[in-house]
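cron nightly-structures :: item 1 of 1
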Amino acid sequence: MVVLSTLDVTKWFKIPGQKPIEVLKGVSFSVDEGEKVAIVGRSGAGKSTLLNILGGLLKPSSGTVTRPDNFGFVFQSYHLMAELTVLENVLLPTMSRRAAAHMTRTQCRDRAMELLSQVGLVDRAEHLPAELSGGERQRVALARALVTDPALVLADEPTGNLDAMTGADILRILSDLSRGGRTALVMVTHSPEAAAVCDRTLALENGILVSKR
């Protein structure tokens, strides 16, 4: 079953006094249930712009995006709430009306603690983000993205701010948490190691999808 699809997606940015810049040029692809897809390309190719459109953070200039209502997002810079504990950060997506309709508070907390256990941070549940390393913060971000059992996870350079050893650990965790389930993964990355954990790679070049495998 297809969980994400784009059809002829374009994105223009208007700059005062200059010609509009076309960042994405007719991008079309789809992602199946449980599939892991890497989006690669040079800096400026349009990867992050495409991911932000997939996640609803940007609107396409034209074209369509069809995605599930229930999806998670992993940011390169973590985007954790500094004043909230690790557990509270993981629980944030469960506070939406849609999530609350399907899970009780006890179920949400149990799921959050289960994920923190899986990423090796159950003993840091009451710590603040400032008390964690970069790798630990990214593990919290992974748990947060998965806490509502989403049909899709979008990840923007999830290993970009991490050293090689920590990055490899994050990739293992991300792969393990989605393996065997129905959660699809779309990951923007510069890393060949990160792309290698995916089932398929899409390449962007100057805003055009030039290769699929």
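cron nightly-structures :: done
Helices lie at 47-54, 86-91, 97-100, 105-118, 134-146, 164-178, 192-196.
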